Amino acid sequence: MVFSRFRKGLTRTRNRISNAMRRLGGDTSAADTIEALEEVLYTADVGPLATELLEEAEGQLKKGNLAKAGEMPTWLRGRLLDVCKGPEGEPLPMEAIDGPCVVLVVGVNGSGKTTSIAKLIHWLRGQNKSVLVAACDTFRAAAVEQLSIWCERTGVEVIKGQQGADPAAIAHDAAAAAKARNVDVLLVDTAGRLHTQKNLMAELEKVSRVIGRQIDGAPHHTVLVLDATTGQNAVQQARQFGETVPLTGVFLTKLDGTAKGGATLSIGHQLGLPVLFVGLGEGMDDIEVFEPEEFLDAILEPRSAEAEA
Ligand SMILES: Nc1nc2c(ncn2[C@@H]2O[C@H](COP(=O)(O)OP(=O)(O)O)[C@@H](O)[C@H]2O)c(=O)[nH]1
Ligand SMILES: [Mg+2]
Q: Best substitution site from 121, 282, 284, 287 to test ligand 1's pocket, by max atoms within 8 Å of Cβ?
């Protein structure tokens, strides 16, 4: 069940804030309530949003709103939901386009790009979409191999070149092949890079441009893969990547390995970028479409009857 998968993946975040959440719902003084709220927000790493919400809560308490025990958690959930909903993301794959939907996958080293591509293949195949993959991370030999193994397992073809080959050339061939075969989706894996690596950033721009020359309007999605365990740093990365290639959304990985799941909330809020998918483990089926309501239930609602791992 989707619901329990979110809960399982977000156990760490939920456990870290559960005591403070209980205090928040208790019948305590305004000062204690604010302290509990502060702990919830900072522990979950919601970023600058914390200050904003704390001020708002203080104002509400002073006015005598939120006076009854139990009102504060409901208020918090409502406010976080507003934030979390963020901008609407264009669904993937896009049905309205003529020809293959091209998804360029970018991010820093180790953020989980290749694994997330495997997950996307699995998810798309589950919807009976035909998929082709471009191995444009030609930087490390192991990268092409890693991607090829996933493609073999999922039964999709991968367009690849030699180690050190020009990623733009592979992108070109892959886009041509995707068009010729009329596949539903072309997923493009890229090498990890930092915003400070000017050549690599220029290379990314070129990959994107070359694809656009082959297929009208492509890439239709440029998805930034962010490692949730980096918390607020992820927000910085998103800003910097967005300056080179226009981003359409985020794939947030490793939510299962962090207590900083709250950072997810800041991404939409601070960047105006939708979180499209989340990664909740290393397997190819550890992928979920981001659902704000389920996400909030999973971090905010401890269940005493539930055996938490
Ligand atoms: N726990 C967990 N590990 C992940 C997730 N996504 C990726 N990883 C791991 O992160 C590491 C780097 O992933 P990889 O896809 O090679 O990153 P890339 O360099 O961006 O392509 C690997 O060990 C993956 O198994 C996730 O959602 N949860
Ligand atoms: Mg990779």
A: 282
| pLDDT tens readout for residues 97-106 | 888 999 999 9
Cis peptide before 219 (omega within 30 of 0): yes
Closest CA to 257 of 4, 7, 10: 10
Question: One-letter amino acid identity for 29?
Answer: S
DSSP one-letter string for 271-300:
H---EEEEE-SSSTT-EEE--HHHHHHHHH
Q: Which two tokens stand for residue 234?
A: 């992820």
pLDDT digits (tens, 9 = 90+) for 123-135: 999 999 999 999 9
Query: Which pTM value belongs to this model?
Result: 0.90
Range 275-291 average pLDDT: 93
Give dist(CA 172, CA 179) in Å, integer. Answer: 11
E strand or H helix that includes residue 125: helix 113-125
- Provide CB contacts within 8 A for 249, sequence distance 6+: 89, 90, 92, 221, 223, 224, 273, 274, 275, 276
CA distance 167 to 188: 10
Distance separating alpha carbons of residues 43 and 17, to the nearest angstrom: 7
Question: Across the chain, what does the average pLDDT equal?
Answer: 89
Ligand 1 binding pocket (C-beta < 6 A) is 107, 109-115, 192, 225, 253-254, 256-257, 279-282, 286
Which of the ligands is closest to the CA of residue 286? 1
CA–CA distance, 131 with 103 (Å, rounded to integer): 11
Q: Is 50 exceeded by the pLDDT of residue 18?
A: yes
Ligand 2 ion: residues within 5 Å (CB): 113-114, 143
Start-to-end CA distance of the chain, whole Å, equals 17
- Using the predicted structure, report yes or no on whether residue 108 has a pLDDT greater than 80: yes
In which band, very low, low, confident or very high, does the pLDDT at 307 lie, cut at 50, 70 and 90?
A: very low
